[in-house]
Design goal:
Length: about 270
């Protein structure tokens, strides 16, 4: 009995110490492994697409929500998307370029920034990646809880579906590919969430002036593109911003610091 009484507190202290050590190791930035990151990104994007597209489209509710958002923007005095959409659509070369921008840069730039982080900022990679993944994960809740039709699918609002009109290869939610994607998952806008993640990450981690300017221009241009192509309302962009704020907050809580303030590299980093 005496031995049991003496050793039990020691066992508890040992277990607590082990758990703290494990948690500290998990929260300590380490050099990412290339094979694991490629697998993680591929599986995560596949899972994201699967869940997003598996959410019931709920067309009637999505259209009602779109009407509500449109009325709300009128009350706020910011409902100018239709005018912008029609004005830019009249400039053929510009709107075609925006269609391709919407379809491609969303993925290309995001992957590019991840690769850059992996190569040049391994100590900050995991925290910044966590912010991106958390942003995307919470967006799925938005798609499920608030199905929303994009402006181009509203009835009676007279928005122009620029991909349909100009016959461009441009969107998984228009043209021949529309049946492969949930068209009523416009809130929040991950074009904004991801582009802001890219822009803020580059701006915080580089000191090259022209690159910092491009970093700020990228989400700004993306905001114009999603409105001009009638894929999103202004308020969808606000939703994307809130998701990103959640992502960075989670990364801050887990790693104890914002990603850009972590060491670029550390001696404790493990080799790939």
């Amino acid at each position: 009995m005496g031995d049991t009484t003496v050793t039990r507190p020691e066992a508890v202290r040992h277990r607590v110490t082990h758990e703290r050590t494990l948690l500290t190791r998990l929260r300590t930035p380490r050099r990412p492994r290339l094979w694991f990151e490629i697998l993680l990104i591929a599986v995560s994007y596949w899972t994201y697409s699967l869940i997003r597209n598996a959410v019931p489209e709920q067309k009637a509710e999505a259209l009602r929500n779109a009407d509500w958002v449109w009325r709300t923007e009128h009350q706020l005095g910011i409902a100018v998307e239709q005018s912008v959409n029609h004005a830019v659509n009249s400039v053929t070369w510009l709107i075609i370029g925006m269609n391709y921008y919407y379809a491609t840069l969303h993925f290309v730039v995001t992957i590019g920034v991840l690769v850059w982080l992996y190569r040049s900022h391994p100590g900050r990679y995991a925290a910044t990646r966590l912010a991106l993944f958390a942003t995307t994960g919470v967006a799925l809740l938005g798609y499920y809880l608030f199905p929303l039709a994009p402006p181009r699918l509203m009835t009676g609002a007279h928005f122009v579906d620029t991909v349909q009109v100009h016959h461009t290869w441009g969107s998984m939610a228009s043209g021949d590919l529309k049946d492969m994607s949930n068209q009523y998952a416009a809130m929040p806008s991950m074009h904004i969430g991801w582009s802001l993640w890219c822009g803020l990450t580059i701006y915080a981690l580089t000191r090259i002036p022209w690159l910092r300017v491009l970093a700020l221009l990228y989400p700004t241009t993306t905001l114009l593109v999603i409105v001009c192509t009638a894929n999103h309302f202004w308020l969808d962009a606000v939703g994307g911003l809130l998701c990103l704020a959640f992502g960075f907050t989670l990364a801050r809580l887990w790693y104890g610091a914002l990603p850009h303030t972590l060491p670029r590299t550390t001696r404790t980093l493990q080799p790939t």
